[in-house]
Amino acid sequence: MGDPAGIGPEIIARSMASPGIKGLAIFVVIADSAVMRKALDDEGVVFSAVPAGSEMVVLAEDRVNVVAVPTNSGRIEPGKPTELGARCALECLDAAADIIKTNKEILRKAIVTAPVDKSRISGIYPGFVGHTEYFQELFSAKMITMVLIGEHLRVVPVTRHIPLKDVPGALSVKLIRDTLAQVVDNRCMICGKQDARIGIAALNPHGGEGGKFGGEEVDIIIPAVNEAKKTYPYMVGPIPADTIFYKAMKKELDIVVSMYHDQCLGPFKMVDFASGVNMTLGLGCVRTSPDHGTAFDIAGKGIASSSSMESAIQLAVKAIS
Amino acid sequence: MGDPAGIGPEIIARSMASPGIKGLAIFVVIADSAVMRKALDDEGVVFSAVPAGSEMVVLAEDRVNVVAVPTNSGRIEPGKPTELGARCALECLDAAADIIKTNKEILRKAIVTAPVDKSRISGIYPGFVGHTEYFQELFSAKMITMVLIGEHLRVVPVTRHIPLKDVPGALSVKLIRDTLAQVVDNRCMICGKQDARIGIAALNPHGGEGGKFGGEEVDIIIPAVNEAKKTYPYMVGPIPADTIFYKAMKKELDIVVSMYHDQCLGPFKMVDFASGVNMTLGLGCVRTSPDHGTAFDIAGKGIASSSSMESAIQLAVKAIS
Fold first, then answer.
1. Do B163 and A206 touch (CB under 8 A)?
2. Do residues A299 and A78 lie in contact, with contact meaning Cβ atoms separated by under 8 Å?
């Protein structure tokens, strides 16, 4: 559900009512039950309450299954974030991971998350950075990769939520090579192509110009790309970061692997602002989410667009089909 | 002229023949004369040779004035870059600066440059980084600012051609404040608005999230913006770099001041790839150039687009009008 005071509940309900989503899979919504019931009622979505706990033995196929989390309170108001809501959002994530892990018989499983209030969650759970890293912990995943999938671009940051000054030091041949391997393994899920062309961005302006503006291309990126090419040849890079995304938009590349967060997020949001989907690789189950925030300012007003959430659900279903 | 073996000569000639440019100003083309004559002849442009030397006493108003540089050779072939060509390009820059500096009676003056082969020039002139920094030296300019002007975005990098790892250390309250002051002084030239809304990008992912992903926002950028606001209030920032360019594209901001090269060039080229103009502030004279390279691969084939060069000329003329 994400933060119960954000747009999460309503975009989930709107997605469940959407002709493009209805019947696509068996849906289990993990939520504050009062908030979620209201949102589903508002959209005329039929649902059943499923008892809390990790065993999902009886699931309805013809309606939405709602699992209430312990903090379930009914004291949440749209647009008014509280610590209680942040706690509730965090419990939804825990419950989702728990359900996935303990219901091993459900082989094709995926989690779709709604936006959370990171700063409030980090007040309860210090060190909380985002869904991606939190799930990495919950699933004890050694190596995970974040992918942003839009209509025009598909981008992968090698480093994520770290200060810019720590980026050059965090890059290594191993990290780039392992990220490329995870992208290669999941290329069909990311872009639907067995022979996806993967471009790798440089770190420095103009790709370092042979070491004049920085040495990481020569010392780290080129060796990593050369190693990765041995098992998957359709790779090119490093390409200067000011042109690689343009090339991808012009369909010269299918996936761009970039060195840091803003390097790919800036260009990505220029062309896929509203429609982006965030996907995590390496968890052992599929996880997607819309690429926008809680939007507390418009929550509960019935104007939030569910298009990114619907894309996230469709992508998750496609990935496990 | 830029590199004589690149697309410079032909896009200059094509611009001189263009109805949007012809008669707009008195034009002096500083070039390898054989290469330039051929290019102008190909486009049917009428021109006169002007004697070399820095005193531009007799200039034709009804035709293009061509000044030949000393390396003038006639041994240049399109698409075949040579050291001789690089030397010629460098001499064109020297001659342009010299003409501007010694003809003080010509008050309204501007330089438009064509693309050069930076790596070959740096073989002749070690430390050559680009036009911007070279002109800073020629004009003994204390502080210069590079601006990229496109149809959709107008962006300014606070730091330019330095390794990414050196960016955080290069940022200071003074540098950001001085850059903002230069942008404010030239805001009408940049975007035609007296009350231009200037957005300032953050350095770290999500704007550092209050110090969690880096402290430069709190320590450097916010104090600099607060200081700059005292003299010019229409400023907002720091704004996370993954959304600020989208906001500018949606016309919520007129100019974006960013912290480093790829931070603004990536998003800029997504939407203004072919039409961008590069402008240098702080030289004491206007200087613009198209925002593309020498394109040796298509030079001399008659297919290079002169649209960015024409925009650069138009912007320069407008700036001195």
1. no
2. yes
